[in-house]
């Protein structure tokens, strides 16, 4: 359970502990019986270069159950989509042994 409520009219979200000057936030969860610390480390290694390339912050946390949460701060939605797409592709290939199907309609 992740509860994030930001109200810029009542809170200064530019301070440490909020969004630290980033304008966009994205998160995702993956729950599967094969998730362990080794997989989480491997996923993080796959996306770690994005922090420098796109000036964003990425964190992955292991969940109490077999799963992990990903949180991303960035300046553009497209950066968050790129990172989450990379993670989704990695999971599809390494957990489900298939290529990722692109389903987004523009």
Automatic annotation (TrEMBL):
Protein name, as recorded: Urease accessory protein UreD
